[in-house]
Amino acid sequence: MSETKAGAGPNGTGSTKIQVLIVGAGSVGLVAACDLARRGIAVRVIDAADGSSSGSRAKGLQPRSLEVLDDLGVVGRIMASGRSRTQIRKYKGTTVLGTSEVNPEAQEPSCSTPYTRTMLVPQWRVEEVLRERLGELGVTVEYGSRLVGLEQDGEFAHATVKKAGGRENVSVPYIVGSDGASSEVRKLIAVGFLGQTDETVRMLTGDVELSGLDRDFWHWWPSPDGRLLALCPLASTDTFQIQIGMSADAAEEFSREEIQSLIDERSGRNDIRVRRVVSQSVWRFNVRMVDRYRVGRVFLAGDSAHVHSPAGGLGMNTGIQDAYNLGWKIAHVLGGAPEALLDTYEEERLPIAADILNLSSRLFSERLKGGVPSEGRSTDTLQLNLNYPASALNDGPARSDAVVNPGDRAPDSLGQTADGTVVRFFDLFRGQHLTALTFGSQSRKTARVLAERFPRELQSFDVLPPDSPTAGLDASSVIDHEGHAHRDYGIDGDTLLVVRPDGYVGMRVTDPDQVHAMDYLRRVLPQEGRSAVGSVTN
Question: Which of the residues 299, 306, 368, 523 has an alpha carbon 20 to 30 A from that of 328?
Answer without folding.
Answer: 306
